[in-house]
Structure prediction request, 315 residues.
Amino acid sequence: MTILTVTLNPAIDVTYRIPALEAGTTVPVTEVRTRAGGKGVNVASVVRGLGGDSLVLAFAGFAQPDGFRAGLDALGLRHRLVPACESVRRTVAVVADDGTTTNLNEPGAEVTTGAEAAITAVLRTELAAGAGAAVISGSVPPGLAAEVPARLVAVCAGYGVPVIADVSGAALRAVATAGAVLMPNRHELAQLLGPLPRSAADVTAAGRRLVRDGAAAVVATAGEDGVIAVTPGGAWSARPVEAVAGNPTGAGDAAAAALARHLAAAGSVSGVDWPAALADVVATSAASVREPVAGEIDAEARSGWLGAVTVRETA
Ligand SMILES: Nc1ncnc2c1ncn2[C@@H]1O[C@H](COP(=O)(O)OP(=O)(O)OP(=O)(O)O)[C@@H](O)[C@H]1O
Ligand SMILES: [Mg+2]
Prediction:
């Protein structure tokens, strides 16, 4: 079953390697790499890496040639693009030889009037064609209302397709009651409910409150501490087998990709075998930290960890 990913604010990710970053000086760039980016693109890439079928739905630029489209093609990802802005933004990661990374993220160009209607129409077409699950992730570009992810969740629900919403800020507040599976990190939980949760019990209580208020489930992520999940049927915590050193950017996207596959297989949140799904989420996201590039996973490490992740039911 196809996993649809929706990326409203795509990017062309540029990585510069440099010897050292010193502000106010001219720095030679020793290597340049570009890749189609945006959280939904990373999710689609991990789904494909896990042997699944994914389809990227995204806004794209009017400008030709279109580097974002070319980047998706280079990654071999299937896509349906909706031209809606001047050109796709770039994010620039400046990686120094000592390993420190500085990220410069453009906000994204304003999307045109009618962009929401156009992406909604494409989403409806793909849902009607038969999709296993949808993942709506990343930021909302200028020109689009913060409520758009919530409205797209409602469209998915209308087709009976389970949906993960991995968004933040105002978009997260709007989507929280819309019947999606939420995947907030600790800071995003605080954006929803106030103070930063201090303990696992705080996170579980926050998850319960969000499920009571209309989230289908909450899978709260906490970096190397793993995840805490709350559904109407129970609550669990799952920890990685080991804390992995590497590139944590995109670990949340790998987590969403793994969970989307379980939602697609089960057809609904209540049908998911949650302990098995959470073990997969934790093993797959840890395996993504092992890879220097977001959207990729170390498949061998994932297989090794899958059976060894501890998942505990929490009171
Ligand atoms: N260093 C690590 N070692 C092992 N597992 C990790 C590590 N960092 C992250 N993970 C796994 O990845 C999951 C998601 O990571 P995190 O909480 O950092 O998400 P995030 O902040 O949404 O990340 P992003 O938005 O950059 O994708 C964690 O719940 C955990 O299971
Ligand atoms: Mg995240």
Summary: The longest strand covers residues 53-61.
